[in-house]
Amino acid sequence: MDNTTNKSSALFARAQQSIPGGVNSPVRAFRSVGGTPVFMQRASGAYMYDADNKRYIDYINSWGPMLLGHAYGPVVAAIQERAAYSTSYGAPTELEIEMAELIVSMAPNVDMVRMVSSGTEACMSALRLARGFTGRNKFIKFEGCYHGHADAFLVKAGSGLATFNIQTVPGVTAGASMDTLTAPYNDLEAVEQLVNDNQGAIAAIIIEPVAGNMGCIVPVPGFMEGLRSICDREGILLIFDEVMTGFRLAAGGAQERLGIRADLVTYGKVIGGGMPVGAFGGRRDIMQHIAPLGNVYQAGTLSGNPIAMIAGYTMLKTLQDNPGIYTQLDQTTEKLHAGLADALAIAGRPFVINRFGSMISVHFSDKPVTNFTDAATADNALFNRFFHAMLDKGIYLPPSAYETWFVSTALSDEDISETIAAAREWAGAL
Ligand code: HOZ
User: CA 192 to CA 326: how far, in whole Å?
Assistant: First the structure.
């Protein structure tokens, strides 16, 4: 099925000549849902406009960062002002201290923080730090969780690897992934088994505290508490990958929302206000192992970049000063959930809507979706049809059942109603 406009089709054909697959990140290519990706030219608030100026209500929000909608005025103004000072110094600035202090004041259990340029960098650095701190090599990740594209994480990973059913990644050596242990999400017994089988060898358990790379999957009661107590008992570090959830679910992210303490936390997306930013932080005694204080080496020419910092700082300060934003996000997402549930019921096909805060997704499944196997055995062909029908009606959903949707404060009641009406029309015609 091809729902795209003429200009997008022409741009996609041209892009494929000089960019692998025509895109700079695989899921954008629409390969699993079919059709041609929509090329965007601008966005404002809740809306994106494609190359032919067709308007879309956006539920991707740049895969998470645009929590306050697109082209949020104060962030844009701050970027414009700072750009005139210089776009990069490669030397420390006061702004980086202000950013670090702000993060430490918002995020629980983060005494120190190091800025990087992406969520991938944040996760690979946090893992290296956990290994350096504990002197152990192995780590546990969960099937369907995605922690960026560093070699060790590309085992049973979600997001694009799940979307394209990539089981083995050429170029990732056996050596790079031999210390990666995997367990099903929400399965504490499987974690206990891995820990027993690898006594004294596991440096870290890394997890998306609310998973967003196999659709949205919520931790069952007791699961996170169980991980915390296993880590405490075994001297394992608990790493929360809050690239999606950080500053989105609450000012203090999933740690605050779930009431669980992590030893290390990784950030991305919202923390950069739409600029390429990531960060990892945590307990002082662990963070002090990072160079130049310790020997766990990590560096970056553009780390702490002034434009990225001012965008992120302005975003986070807005969130800190306006806690009502989180209530608004929850209420908007609840309305969307209720309306979609009513609308999709018309089709008479089983479906599950998972939601936590402003993360939500639909799986066409007849049983609860609590792990990757559940997500993978849902009717994802039906999701693809749903996706295209919504796209036709100007509703921009992630082009994969293995991605969460992200809600922004820019969405109005009218936008939600329009989205629900589109879903109802599709369900009625099925
Ligand atoms: N890894 C992102 C979704 N989980 C996709 C990033 C993108 O295509 O921009």
Answer: 35
